[in-house]
């Protein structure tokens, strides 16, 4: 029996579970982008292939798949729990420039089309949403990460409220706001934005006012997952970063500072990949037991489970 691969530090130690989440022969991953976990620890993987949502139980047993309408456009993926306990999925589709809300089984409940802002968008200035999140009151926030670097704010019914941002590096400006999420760890909810090409997190109020930067220990941050007092971030440059309640570094997981420097990255020869090293982390989530699930931006997909040891 092979020796178990362990990564992490003294407070956050994980065993790498190789081969987790086996697909049936009828399904092949495209680029794996987003990954979320529901209240029963079912794991939903969002990828660019035909059945773009694949669902597993926590042991990696395939349960179901759906989402053909998102083929080719899979990107941002967010699970929101309403105050009444209902859970919903939100999709940011880069191919169709659309935000979609569904049930956990794929029933479409809401579609949000591009904002009516001719001052921001036209034939040359594209709108390409990369992520979406939902505030406690149901308001929806969309990050135009591959378009004009704006954030758009809607109410729960999809009615447009406001926008802010635009490309730049000064406070309130963004450069590829790739990921967006709601921080509920403090007294007042905040919006966290993975300001990826600026290599930082930018924090805003729910009304879009700049609060602060988090600028240390990040290397192209992609998205967020809040678990307890901690925040888990996939750094596209080949590692997972965990920050504490004050956004200070706890540890990096699976760091490989050579991966993103390889010719052809992110689609490297299969011989390059190692189970305990990451190449292009893109989406992350954490289940009720503290186990981490990571999706990497690789053409035929890569999903890793890290089993919490302590």
UniProtKB/TrEMBL annotation:
Coiled-coil intervals: none
NHL repeat residues: 165-207
UniProt keyword list: Glycoprotein, Repeat, Signal
A Pfam family: NHL
PANTHER family: BLL1368 PROTEIN (PTHR10680:SF38), PEPTIDYL-GLYCINE ALPHA-AMIDATING MONOOXYGENASE (PTHR10680)
This protein's name: 6-bladed beta-propeller
Lineage: Bacteria, Bacillati, Bacillota, Bacilli, Bacillales
